[in-house]
Amino acid sequence: MPAPNNNAAASVRKGSIAQKVPGAKSTKAPSKKKDEEEGVDTGDGWDEWSHGKALIKPADQLELTEAELKEEITRILTANNPHAPENIVRYSFKERSYKPTSVVDQMAVHFVLEGSLLHQDSDEARRLRAKEETAAVDTVGEPDEEKPETPATPVEEGGETEEAGEEDRPDSVASKTDKKEPKLTNQFNFSERASQTLNNPLRERSCQTEPPPRSVFSSTANQWEIYDAYVEELQKQEKNKEKQKAAPSKKDNDKSKKKMMLTETQNDDITKVAKASKIFERMVNQNTHDDIAQDFKYFEDASDEFRDQEGTLLPLWKFQYDKAKRLSVTALCWNKKYQDLFAVGLGSYDFSKQGRGMLVFYSLKNSAFPEYIYPTHSGVLCLDIHEQYSYLVAVGFYDGCVAVYNLREEGLDPVYKSTAKTGKHTDPVWQVHWQNDDMDNNHNFYSVSSDGRVVSWTLVKHSATFDMNELVFTDIIRLSVNGAVSEGPGSPQQPSIACGTSFDFHKQIDYLFLVGTEEGKIHKCSKTYSSQFLETYDAHSMTVDAVKWNHFHPKVFVSCSSDWTVKIWDHTINSPMFTFDLNAAVGDVAWSPYSSTVFAAVTTDGTVHVFDLSINKYEAICQQPVVAKKKTKLTHVEFNPIYPIIIVGDDRGYVTSLKLSPNLRKKPKSKKGQELPKGPEVEVAKMEKLLIPPFSLLFHLFKPDQTAAPREECVMGSVCMEALSGANGSSWFEWPIYEYFM
């Protein structure tokens, strides 16, 4: 019997918690040994008694693996009192109200024991020591008669010895009750750790401010005021119902639903929230790009003082819309009234990649997202913002349509749009331009297209009907290759049509305008005389991408082409005054609004070229790449009308703003004792100096007795100038600045 019991006890797993009979493990071996010494017979019931002391495993005992037994479970104690209240309020005399207190005492007292230990050097310890010494002296001085009473009787001694013997006996009842039970072994590898840290000293901080001014307002709401408020609300609801009923039945159901949704959502609260959110978005964006805003307002490149009349461009903001990544920037235009707002036309110049387009408006105050977004079904190729009415935008599309968008109107559709019935172009519209209002005060703009037509569009709105906006077209002139104007299908011989690609109207003479063609020629035309061209210039060998009049001088204009050249012209002379080769196809050119001799051009190699003819007539004073070469091509450039910055667009839909350094925006200096005249006359005088040739050279070319001189040609770098024929009928002369060759 004993063997099986021992094996069963030994086979218990390590993680089991055994229930033990009290005192079984501690008294088993000593009692058996003492019985053997005293010769006590244990009897036959020993096995049963020892079997009762075996480890008993409960039925719901949790079985743990060796890894779980070795795992240490850390228990972290915090100093926060879970029973501490969190809603304690105290009266604030400053604010005259109850305020919640944030400081709550987290200390909880569980046990307090007052100690009786004293420092040996303290006064109280000395007094206590003196009392003990006097008490000891008193006990020593007592008579010896009382001593016999102290010894105990033999019976008591015997009893004490018996009690001691009972205590020494391990199997006695007293020993079983008095002896402490042994500490249970740790079956779960429990480890207890504690640490005490130094509490930081508490600091009280307080501030005192002046209370805000108080105003007492009182009003009485009677029944009449409540009645009036209900009447106003009913009137608003009736007006909304009338507007919904007045919607035209000719419109589609989808458009009527959109208008109903717009009328329902138009209320004061939403508009206030929208305005506040826009201001907040601009504040966040300005804080994010604060370094760029500081550069835009204050930075001036000090190194320009040490450069030899050269300048640089400082990159500022970069504008990009995620849904227009695959579209090219096909048009740029600044708003004349709001100088921080500009429009961007997005489309494609590739014939095989035509599809959707987009018209977006950006502001310098928020470069992260456009202010207005108008998706279009066809690619946008050109646009122009009205100078007086800055909310009107004329747009030309790749499919030949022209449209007018009103930024004040809600919705994504244009308020005016041409159709096949109203004389739309049959080829892409390459440029549009607003003109002065007609005699009936109707707005009008011009457009030029590859179909050879220069068309005037008049915005007419009939007040008799509810929604009748009409674009009335008038053909101003038809372009032809051989210089003659086509007279219609009834003519005996139909000349070939020239493709118009760009045009610009004179700044001072209202009827005069220039038209650039795909064949490389520039025609000077008039609105009032459309039977033939006033002048034709053999300008370029490839398409004329842009032609623009000078803002100050009435005779000068500039042109650029894909043949890598930019040319400066006097419209009274048939040959260019200056020719600049930029070693890459030129996408666009623009005159500066602050100087008559400064202009900028962009090329397909990603470079911006800035020229100042009053400083250097032979090469650009700034040539700076602004995008990665061989990947991105620049398409357009525009000067800001007020700030010294330019914006350039590329074929990936990005618009980059650049700040001009001081050398790129110099103004003429006055001599000592002379006051410089103000106004545009200064810029006209600057350009006149470039147009007038040296007197000695003219005297050498035009002799008094010369009636007909041979044509003298010259080439000097990329600059070429011409002089008009003399009064005696002499032929044209081409002459260089320094020398000429016979």
From TrEMBL:
This is Uncharacterized protein.
